């Protein structure tokens, strides 16, 4: 509904450019290698709440692309893959801020499942730079782009790296999915973006790799806690 409202407003106001933030979640049950924008998506059953987000984002994409075709709306769609960095909060259970806060405060790092699931974490500054470049590229209108970093890491390795980088002695605790998310949760075992298209369009190259991202974000979490020790 939010996307629909923005698209309707844009029909009136005719912006020079509009970027729709979609998500890698639209790929659904990805397991193979890197996914490209044209990949067939497999979204799970409607009884699993996770997929409502994927379906919602996909509908937003359909609406925006229809608006582009019918009314020449200058819209570009980006599918973000685990964007992280300073000022990301763990209120929605996002893994990196959660691990950093746990490591810094000496609490156990909670790895869900067996920790072999993988993700690619990208630095928010790289993503913003890419989005701005895409929003200026007229050839990118009506197109969909993966945006992120393609350095893959398992969640268990992420926990170890965070703990080491923080000089922490926290234990790493394996938590069953059922305990973390309740019944009926479905994990995405592997999620890696194919970045060929965005490289072709705007020569996109993330500058901050996983280690640097962890350092930058660790420093921010520490600074924030130093300013206000009541923050968990
Ligand atoms: N995760 C974890 N411990 C946490 C929070 C998340 O092991 O405290 C795992 C989660 O199960 C998933 C991965 O980390 O496999 C990334 O989770 P997040 O919610 O950050 O992003 P998404 O699942 O949307 O990729």
Describe the protein's architecture and organization.
- With 232 residues, the chain is an alpha/beta fold.
- The protein contains 8 helices and 9 strands.
- Strands 1-2-7 form a 3-stranded parallel sheet, sandwiched between helices.
- Strand 1, helix 2 (50-71) and strand 2 (75-80) form a beta-alpha-beta unit.
- Helix 3 (95-105) crosses helix 8 (210-227).
- The longest helix is centred in the N-terminal third of the chain and has 22 residues, at 50-71.
- Bound molecules: uridine-5'-diphosphate (UDP).
- Uridine-5'-diphosphate is lined by residues 82, 93-95, 98, 110-112, 117, 119, 155, 187.
Bound molecules: uridine-5'-diphosphate
On the 0-100 scale, what is the average pLDDT? 95
Low-pLDDT sequence parts? none
Structural class: alpha/beta
Name the helix and strand elements from N-terminus to C-terminus, one letter apiece: HEHEEHEEEHEEHEHHH
* Bulk shape: globular
Q: What is the makeup of the main sheet?
A: 3 strands, parallel
Question: What radius of gyration results from the CA coordinates?
Answer: 19 Å
Q: Approximately how much beta-strand content do the residues carry? A: 5-15%
What is the helical fraction, as a range of percent?
40-55%
